[in-house]
Structures are given as structure tokens and as C-alpha cells.
Amino acid sequence: MYHVIRARRVVVTTAVLLVLLSYTVAANGAGAATAEVQEDPATRVLNDAAALEGLLNDYWTQELAGLYELSFDTPDRFEWYQGSNNALCGGGYENGAENAYYCPVDSDEYVAFDLDWFTSYLERFPGDAITFLVLAHEWGHAVQDTWQEQQPGVDTWSPAYQKELNADCLAGVFLADSVMAEAIILEDGDAEAIATWFFENGSGQWFDPGTHGTREERAQAFADGLVQDADYCRVTY
Questions:
Q1: Long-range contacts, 81-84 (Cβ 8 Å, 24+)
Q2: Which of 28, 124, 214, 225 is deepest in the core (most CB within 10 A)?
Q3: What are φ and ψ of residue 36, in 5° steps?
Q4: What's the gap between Cα 107 and its chain centre?
Q5: What is the value of pTM for the model shown?
Q6: Residue 31 has what DSSP assignment?
Q7: How confident is the model over 114-171, as pLDDT tens digits?
Q8: Burial of residue 156 (number of CB atoms within 10 Å: 0-12, 13-18, 19+)
């Protein structure tokens, strides 16, 4: 999955993505893309992340202003780390290995990701789709934070994992709109990569169903975002 400034290859429509998402989850994961990675994996991830930061901030700035007349509270910083060397969040520390997260602490709201974790996915999914999917999810938490700051008392997530499903849904909204606008180009294998990721990460250290929902719930929330808008995600999840 590339920012538009990169070379285009195969464009997959949202409709096809939905079909493949449903098929792959039901089939226990289809094969990953086999495209050759042309550059150093870490450099590739960092270039994609840098491009995506601007796309996400611009998109949600326009979207929240248009839907709610809100001013998107962009993350104060965006950073990467390796393994468990992630920064504190509000003075507290939690091992961030193989994870990405949004820290919601006022005056230090930031998104961070484990670079080693992201690069590990390039061996199976060379199209970069996982980098785009996970960061779009984390920016969904920044959207939630904006709602809570500027329209307090409106949003509650019960049980708590509904907040994660909401972020999955918002990720789908962003990716679908960005693909339609050709700000992001889906490549051959990206749909399978996204579907496989959701199937495999319905559980695990950071993805226990009690904290993020089941794999089926997560895939459904993302699929809803592909065909709905942010307000639908807000009301439904």
C-alpha cells in the first residue's frame, strides 16, 4: 500500500476489498502477496509512516470539521521505537514490543509504533498494508479523544473493547475514502493482507478478545467503515 507519490501497480476497489476481507476471514487466511521489497524494510516503513501522518491529519481535520464543526486535535508527536524501548505515557510505562498505541494524556498526546514489529510484516505482506491499517486505527483513537475533549459526555464505550472496534471502523472510513480519492493506492495482495491480519489478531498479547473484540467483530467493524462514514462508526460502536 503506497502513498500516491509512489509507483502505482494494481488498484483494488473498495468493493473487491470487502469481498476479499469476507472470504479471507472465512477461509482462515489466504496467501500473502509475493511482491519483491525493493528497499530496506525499516526505511520503507518510516517513509510510509511519514507520508501517512500528513494524510491522516489532513483527512480527519476536514472530516471532523465537516461532520461536527470540530477542530481535530492532531497528535502532538508521532514516533517509533524498537522492541520495548517505548516512551512513557503520562508518567507510566507499559511494554510496547510488537505494538502500536495512542497516548491520550493532555499536552502529550502521541502515536508510537514498534518499528521492528512493522518491518516483520513486510516479509509476509510486502505491500505495506499493515503499516497503513494499524496507524489508521491509532489515529482513530485521536479522533475519539477529540470527540471527548470537544463534546464531553457524548461518547461512552461499553464494554470497553467497543472503543477498539470504533477505531477499527474509523480506520476503514479513512482507508476507503483515501483509496477513492487516490491519495492511497491499494496494491495486489493488500486486501488479503488486511483480512489475514484481522483473522490472526482477534487474540494475542495486545489483541485479547476482552480488550479489542473477537476477530470477527474487528473485521466487521472495519468492513462497516469501508462503506459507512465516521458518524456511523460513532453511533454504532
A1: 81/112, 81/113, 81/114, 81/115, 82/114, 82/115, 82/116, 83/114, 83/116
A2: 225
A3: -80, 130
A4: 23
A5: 0.85
A6: P
A7: 999 999 999 888 888 999 999 999 999 999 999 999 999 999 998 888 999 999 999 9
A8: exposed
